[in-house]
Amino acid sequence: MTSGYYDYDAYAHALLTRVGTRRDVLELEVGTGLIADRLLALGPRDLRLTGIDHTDSMLAQARGRLGDRVTLRRQDILDMALPSAFDVAYSIGGVWYIVEDGEQSWLSSHLMEEKDNETALANLAAAVRPGGTLLLSVQGPHRRADRPLPGGLHYTQHVQWTRRASTPRTTSSRTRE
Predict the structure, then answer these.
(1) 36-67 pLDDT, tens per residue?
(2) Kindly report the CA angle at 34 between 91 and 127, in degrees rounded to 5?
(3) Under 8 Å CB-to-CB from 163, ≥6 apart: which residues?
(4) Which of 103, 113, 140, 168 shows the greatest Cβ crowding within 10 Å of its Cβ?
(5) Euclidean distance between the first and the last CA atom of the chain, given in angstroms as a whole number
(6) What is the CA radius of gyration of the chain?
(7) Where are the alpha helices (DSSP H) in the chain?
(8) 97: buried, middle or exposed (CB in 10 Å: 19+, 13-18, 0-12)?
(9) How far apart are CA 149 and CA 172, in angstroms?
């Protein structure tokens, strides 16, 4: 998450342009809080940001980075139960994102089953006020990767295409060398 894959300032500026005057914002899969941190630094003081993640270790890092500037909740989008309180929800490489490769683009998901995507989208729709917006990041396709990382870690990523939808499924791992 900190290896330079994302341009956090660029994402924050793009989000703020699209958020406009709306103030109640939900980040899906807040992770360690890197994007939320930039959004708060560059955005208006009255921005009310809530971040959800299903991983305790990620939320612990986000709490350390963000303190009480953001409401953080342990929620799995498949079981999410939040009040209909948000004007905007966004996912930057989290649960959903758009992949562009040349003239092709497609919705990519970290949820492997179509039923899970339907459930998650229904839960999200319940949390976003009528007329609200879902913003998804756009990125290039994942490629096979194999490289060393700082601290003796090693990153490996494999991409597997499914026949049914011709969309990629990506797995990655970090291991100590």
Answers:
(1) 999 999 999 999 999 999 999 999 999 999 99
(2) 35
(3) none
(4) 168
(5) 19
(6) 16
(7) 8-19, 34-42, 56-66, 114-127
(8) middle
(9) 13
